[in-house]
Amino acid sequence: MSNERPKASSDPEMMSPQDAAEQDMQIQADEALPGDEHISMDGTVPTGDGDPRDLRIAELEQQLAETKDQALRALAEAENVRRRTQRETEQIKKYAPGSLAKDLMSALDNLTRALQAAPDKEGLDEVTKNLVIGVEMIEKEVVSAFEKNHIQRVDPMGQKFDPNFHEAMFEVPDTGKPAGTVVQVLAPGYVLRDRLLRAAMVGVAKGGAPEAHKPIDTTA
């Protein structure tokens, strides 16, 4: 009896499982493309430390991170510019009437002085009386327009002198008022919201109130 192992049949149905597995491995080895000798049995491609693909991936990841950082910085800067522009626009709207009000203050001062110098309307003829009434109406309309635009008149007569809102033009002695009291207003001041447009020009008391005379003691 011969000990030679019979050749495996090429018919898959006549092959043993071991022979079929060996044939499949041989076929895969024969069909492997050049350069596939580095492919492992599980189908993965092992890479070493110096693999160009790893270096390229690392380079792309770094570029992506830098681009993302630049984009975030650009967005932050754009948001800062937007907020700053919004604040500036709000400030312009808030204090825009101040420029026009400054141009009208002198005219309003002249109207007020004219009314202060006008005689009592009761003793005036009809024409002059109507003229004074017309000046009063103009003054009231200008003051009303100021108030609608948040501009308030500062008339500190009798108040304590405040350097934040008043400008002392001179001192008045012997007024009987405490020192620093406003005893005369040359021109009122004006405030737009929380911003001073013009300080009130005033005269202030120089000395304190005179001491009251003590009664003479006649019992001594």
Following the backbone from N to C, one meets helices and strands in this order, namely HHHHEEEEEE
Read across the widest sheet, the strand sequence of neighbours is 1-4-5
Query: Uncertain runs with pLDDT below 50, 5 residues or more?
Result: 1-6, 32-45, 209-220
| Cα separation of the termini | 171 Å
Q: What's the average pLDDT?
A: 80
* Rg computed from alpha carbons, rounded to a whole number of angstroms: 50 Å
Your description of this structure?
Helix content is 47%, strand content 14%. It has helices spanning 17-31, 52-95, 97-117, 126-148, and strands at residues 151-154, 166-172, 182-187, 189-192, 195-198, 200-205. The strands form two sheets. Strands 1-4-5 form a three-stranded antiparallel beta sheet. Among the domains are: 53-95; 96-205, Roll (Nucleotide Exchange Factor Grpe, Chain A, domain 2), CATH 2.30.22. The model is unreliable at 1-6, 32-45 and 209-220 (pLDDT under 50). Strand 4 and strand 5 (195-198) form a beta hairpin. It is rod-shaped and about 140 Å long. It is of the alpha+beta class.
Considering the chains and any ligands shown, give keywords for the structure:
220 residues; alpha+beta; Nucleotide Exchange Factor Grpe, Chain A, domain 2; 3-stranded antiparallel β-sheet; 3-stranded mixed β-sheet; 6 strands; 47% helix; rod-shaped; disordered C terminus
Topology record:
Blueprint (H helix, E strand, L loop, with lengths): L16 H15 L20 H44 L1 H21 L8 H23 L2 E4 L11 E7 L9 E6 L1 E4 L2 E4 L1 E6 L15
Parallel strand pairs: 2-6
Antiparallel strand pairs: 1-4, 3-6, 4-5
Helix pairs in contact: 3-4
